[in-house]
Design a protein that fits this description.
Protein name: Ribonuclease BN (tRNA processing enzyme)
Keywords: Hydrolase
Number of helices: 10
Helix content: 25-40%
CATH architecture of the largest domain: 4-Layer Sandwich
Structural class: alpha/beta
Number of domains: 2
Pfam families: Lactamase_B_2
Largest sheet: 7 strands, mixed
Low-confidence stretches: 1-13, 44-77
InterPro entries: AtsA-like_MBL-fold, Metallo-B-lactamas, RibonucZ/Hydroxyglut_hydro
Bound molecules: zinc ion
Strand content: 15-25%
Distance between the termini: 38 Å
Amino acid sequence: MRAIIRHSGRYESERRYVLPMLQYIQNAELRRATTRLASARNRMMHKVILAKTLAVVVCAAMAGSAVASTKPATAAAASTAPAQAPDGLLLLGTAGGPLARADRAGIATLLTIGGRNYLVDAGEGVVHQLGKAGMQAPAAPIVFLTHLHDDHYAGLPGLASFSYTLRAPRLDVYGPAGTVDLVGGVAQVMVPNARIRMAEQGLKHTPAEFVVAHEYGAGTIFDDGNVRVSAVVNTHFDFPDGSPAAVNKSYSLRFDAKGHSIVFTGDTGPSQAVATLAKGADVLVSEMASHADRAAVPPFVRPHMDREHLSPLEVGKLAAAAGVKTLVLTHIGVTDPSDVAEIRSVFKGRIIVGADLTKVAL
Ligand SMILES: [Zn+2]
Ligand SMILES: [Zn+2]
């Protein structure tokens, strides 16, 4: 039996660290399967065992998934050249706010471009959602946090720690002022597990070395030669200048890559800066506070919902002003066709109402 591992074009470091682990798991599975077959032969001396295909599915790995399977001998010589994951968006979680929902995980969107993955926000349940999509935590080696409300980073500790345990080389977290504190806390949470893994498995680097914070402000915040990321301050926060809270900023992000432009509003109210950032983008991934969502919040949150989030009509106006081709709605609680109708009254492009695990090709 031969095993073939196919994987999408990942970073070299992922191939060095994660795939060997999967190979190890796979080999162990194959040894067990072989032993079971031998026992069956002994018990059934005169019967022919036909095993055309014995599939051993190893925990799926990165985007496009790493799948190990036994193949007939004729297939054993198949090419092992990596198949690059197609460019696109994967809405891992589409819920906004701290309310747990049966039908939506916390806000998190995976952008794949040029075979690389970029995670925008890391809401509650992000690792579980990656699993549903056939991936594991190391599939998201770079995280961009739009702002530091907890619904946007609640999944970060799990993502970081499981990536560490699965021997990803590092995790980079880009976020507003406060991200250094946040990541320091995440690294601290990882310490008890890391002590055990270091003793058990010889892991060398510490959590503080593994998860790296990068605080950003407005402007170009990232460029790896594959994507360039730009940030503008939006209107999700309204703290008086000079007040201690004014250090907190909320950002909208634009990703420009060869042939693609994708803008994430993050959380925002109406904002000319966001409309300018989104000008001519292929895809606008926008938050929306539906009428039902606004009605559902307690009175002390209502002014924030009304002024510092976008109503369906405001989403439509933003998309129309920016002239985007496709509008993807996310960060939703409950929505109905009347919300889309309001958007449609002012925006004529394509509208996708996001659900968890919705894919949008680029
Ligand atoms: Zn939010
Ligand atoms: Zn928020």
